[in-house]
Backbone:
């Protein structure tokens, strides 16, 4: 990568050139984003994960640009058409679109109207006309009539010349640049329902006759309209006013006052726009807006996923998990403190069997037998009825009873991971195990499930799947390494996301652990087959070993800094364990005395912070949550009710909240706070406990409107604020239904 690219990245990200060059050097050596941001602060100038990832992604984009540039230069060179001027233009192109515009005239084409006209020998006539001089048009065109070349008339000759001119106009680099800007800045999305499909397309009702500027269309509406078009319910156009577009072309191409040649060029311009340039620009704009919409949707998805993965864990406690149901009963499992399956059973406390006495006795017996400390109940079918039943049993007060979001549990239960863990168990039992483990440690359990199936995304199947996967993988890796992983209890799936490992080394660690027993030190990790020095360097700081001989093995202090910490302790006549337990001792350490060429204050400050809370889980403390008793179904709701709820999903237009009636309600952006906000993330997070007011209930369409305002009804009757566009004021039906459709169990 040339120096100009490094400079460009530094300018775009507003950081120093050295930070860019040094970070890319680390990335090229195989270092991961979490490792670089956590353990190489002196090298990067304390760049965080977001900045390091941005450098990585932009560097890759520029490398892809260079790769394409090289291929284009080679292609044109082989054609014998590469001039110094063209080469300079190609080498100075800063975007892929400009690069492709320059290549367009030299790009191998299928036979077009222009190539056919050239084969008929009409290019000289086209050149003459394109000069727009005053000529005897008919006389010049007559010269090209030839039965042999199938040019039978003056009009045939002129038509062929116009076809060639149209292609030249289409390949005009500066015109394409300005037309691209016109489409984006002045273009509009125009969506209409396909006649006769009004009933089938009811979920896209908001877009039956919809128009909005391309440049301001939010991602969820772009994706909703595209999905409606893909499903053959909507017709979607994305162009500027045709008069403006052709006017731009006339101003750039026409050089003289009206004459017969100019009139021919005008005809060619109009043909070019309708046949070549408009379809080309529309395709580009669609790709551009799709990419932008994908980026926005993926950003929302990854932020929701981060919040869900970092939800507060209950911790290592004995847990009973219940996957509730009616006809098929409630699958009930008991798990040990490390998530190991102790027992499983089925109880039938609900309709139609209603074997309440038997079910109650079973639960009480299991609670006592396995010393159960918490009961996790999945929030699916029959959840509220099952919760009410369990709470009526008079269990010991120390036993926590709580609902758990079971989105994705059924996906896990049918997965290869679940079959590998529990080959002899029924799918429903595996699902119950997943529910219980999710209460104990959401992060450790959710990494086993395809992130797209967890139910926190919007249009996750419509966005660029490669970009989505990369972003989700980054998010999961960030969360896993941010929390740290206990190597002696972690699953293969969890270990896979540890910096420097991956699936093969994760499996090797599990195999080694099975054959040799628990790891006794971080140093022992090097004995794992194929786990070399580089992988150890990347992974060691994020792996934890409880009760290890070396006290720092349970902390986030990297083994490469053990000697430094030991020298700190020695200087005070103490042990490392003394430093970890005594704030007074730590306060005596003068950090600047330990600064060296490789260790600066950022790393030293991180070490001191870690010594004060070695291995502490950075996630919040678990809090029990309960839904409103007696409100179990939508039919129990009444407008004006104030209810507790949990935020399950955040979108650009609001937040979905579970209020315990088997159907999430929507708090629109305009009802998330008493003040004006631009982004729901300003006031809510996934898994946040909130109080909402019921505003609207539509049982037929399973829609619930909620508000988090202190006086939500005060604004009724007033005109809509700038915050609400018409579609958003209606709750953006298409987007909501698509979202709800995507929420898997």
Residues:
């Amino acid at each position: 990568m040339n120096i100009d690219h490094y400079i460009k990245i530094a300018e775009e990200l507003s950081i120093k050139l050295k930070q860019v060059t040094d970070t890319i050097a680390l990335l090229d050596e195989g270092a991961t984003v979490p490792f670089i941001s956590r353990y190489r602060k002196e090298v990067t100038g304390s760049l965080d994960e977001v900045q390091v990832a941005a450098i990585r992604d932009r560097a890759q984009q520029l490398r892809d640009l260079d790769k394409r540039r090289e291929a284009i230069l080679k292609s044109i060179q082989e054609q014998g058409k590469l001039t110094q001027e063209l080469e300079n233009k190609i080498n100075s192109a800063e975007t892929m679109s400009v690069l492709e515009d320059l290549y367009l005239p030299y790009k191998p084409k299928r036979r077009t109207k222009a190539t056919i006209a050239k084969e008929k020998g009409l290019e000289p006539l086209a050149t003459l006309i394109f000069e727009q001089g005053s000529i005897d048009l008919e006389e010049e065109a007559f010269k090209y009539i030839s039965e042999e070349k199938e040019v039978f008339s003056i009009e045939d000759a002129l038509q062929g010349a116009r076809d060639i001119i149209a292609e030249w106009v289409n390949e005009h680099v500066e015109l394409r640049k300005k037309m691209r800007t016109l489409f984006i800045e002045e273009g509009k999305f125009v969506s209409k329902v396909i006649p006769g499909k009004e009933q089938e397309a009811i979920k896209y009702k908001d877009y039956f006759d919809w128009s909005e500027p391309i440049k301001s269309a939010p991602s969820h509406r772009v994706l909703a309209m595209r999905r409606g078009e893909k499903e053959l319910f909507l017709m979607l156009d994305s162009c500027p006013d045709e008069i403006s577009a052709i006017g731009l072309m006339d101003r750039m191409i026409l050089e003289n006052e009206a004459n017969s040649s100019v009139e021919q060029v005008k005809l060619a311009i109009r043909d070019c726009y309708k046949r070549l340039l408009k379809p080309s620009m529309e395709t580009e704009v669609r790709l551009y807006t799709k990419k932008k919409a994908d980026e926005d949707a993926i950003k929302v998805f990854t932020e929701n996923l981060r919040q869900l993965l970092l939800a507060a864990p209950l911790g290592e406690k004995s847990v009973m998990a219940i996957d509730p149901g009616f006809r098929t009963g409630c699958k009930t499992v008991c798990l040990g403190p490390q998530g190991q399956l102790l027992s499983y059973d089925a109880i039938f406390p609900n309709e139609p069997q209603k074997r309440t006495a038997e079910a109650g006795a079973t639960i009480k017996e299991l609670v006592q037998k396995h010393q159960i400390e918490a009961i996790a109940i999945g929030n699916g079918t029959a959840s509220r009825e099952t919760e009410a039943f369990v709470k009526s049993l008079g269990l010991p007060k120390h036993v926590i009873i709580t609902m758990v979001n079971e989105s994705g549990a059924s996906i896990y239960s049918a997965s290869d991971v679940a079959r590998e863990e529990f080959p002899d168990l029924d799918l429903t039992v595996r699902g119950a195990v997943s529910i219980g483990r999710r209460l104990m440690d959401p992060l450790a359990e959710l990494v086993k499930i395809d992130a797209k199936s967890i139910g926190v995304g919007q249009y996750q199947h419509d966005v660029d799947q490669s970009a989505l996967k990369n972003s989700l993988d980054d998010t999961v890796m960030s969360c896993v390494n941010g929390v740290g992983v206990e190597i002696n209890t972690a699953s293969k799936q969890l270990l896979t996301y540890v910096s420097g490992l991956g699936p093969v080394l994760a499996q090797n660690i599990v195999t080694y652990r099975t054959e040799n027993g628990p790891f006794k030190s971080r140093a022992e990790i090097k004995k794992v087959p194929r786990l070399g020095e580089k992988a150890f360097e990347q992974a060691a700081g994020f792996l934890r070993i409880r009760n290890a001989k070396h006290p720092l093995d349970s902390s986030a202090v990297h083994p490469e800094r053990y000697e430094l910490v030991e020298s700190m302790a020695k200087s005070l006549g103490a042990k490392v364990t003394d430093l970890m337990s005594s704030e007074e001792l730590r306060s005596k350490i003068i950090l600047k005395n330990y600064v060296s060429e490789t260790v600066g204050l950022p790393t030293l400050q991180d070490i001191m912070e870690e010594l004060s809370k070695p291995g502490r889980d950075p996630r919040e403390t678990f809090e029990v949550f309960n839904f409103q008793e007696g409100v179990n179904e939508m039919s129990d709701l009444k407008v004006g009710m104030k209810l507790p709820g949990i935020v399950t999903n955040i979108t650009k237009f609001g937040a979905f909240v579970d209020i315990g009636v088997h159907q999430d309600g929507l708090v629109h952006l305009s009802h998330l706070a008493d003040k004006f906000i631009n982004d729901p993330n300003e006031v809510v997070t996934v898994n946040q406990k909130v109080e909402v007011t019921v505003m609207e209930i539509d049982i037929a369409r399973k829609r619930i409107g909620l508000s988090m305002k202190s006086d939500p009804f005060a604004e009724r009757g007033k005109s809509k604020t700038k915050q609400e566009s018409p579609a958003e004021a209606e709750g953006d039906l298409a987007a909501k239904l698509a979202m709800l459709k995507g929420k898997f169990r």
Notes: The first strand starts at residue 188 and ends at 193.
